[in-house]
Amino acid sequence: MNGKRRQLLLAAIDSMLEPGEQVEVTTIVNLSSVTVRRTAAFAAASAILSGGGMAVIPAPTPMYLAMTDRRIFIFRANPTFARPEEHLMTIPRAGLVRSEIKERVLNSSFIISSTDSEQGLKIIFPLVGRKERNVIAAALPLAD
Predict the structure, then answer these.
(1) Residue 35 to residues 57, 60, 93: CA-CA distances in angstroms?
(2) From CA 142, how far away is CA 122, in angstroms rounded?
(3) Per-position DSSP letters for the chain, written without gaps between them
(4) What is the pTM of this model?
(5) Cβ-count burial of 59 within 10 angstroms (0-12 exposed, 13-18 middle, 19+ buried)?
(6) pLDDT bucket at 41, cuts 50 / 70 / 90
(7) pLDDT, tens digit (0-9, with 9 covering 90-100), for 102-133
């Protein structure tokens, strides 16, 4: 994450931080993946409907993630400008666990969940976000 984006994200969460809470890492992530099969089907359908004039490929919305020593903040990223648009959720770190890291050619991911819940959140990191992914993965214990 470049300096401008990081500063805008830190400014957005500054008023949400508790006394003594420290930001450990900031990064750009995706919270849902678009499968290759679904992307190909969507592109084919849009090409057919437009008479071959264009093909549209869906792309996941980038999100900003900031992890402090106590919580994880998720913001929707403005795709045109470098600023965070909307605060989506805050997750307390206490009790969070993660799955094994799944490596892919262009990205990697893992699922975070609470020890007392069966639902999880899949976080997808771009290739350039490996350093930040490793910091977050090191802070969260592996699920049993």
Answers:
(1) 11, 11, 29
(2) 14
(3) --HHHHHHHHHHHHTTPPTT--EEEEEEEBSS---HHHHHHHHHHHHHHTTTS------PPPEEEEEESSEEEEEEEPSSSSSEEEEEEEEE-TTEEE---EE-SSEEEEEEEETT-S-EEEEEEEGGGHHHHHHHHHHSPBP-
(4) 0.78
(5) exposed
(6) low
(7) 999 889 999 898 877 777 888 999 988 999 99
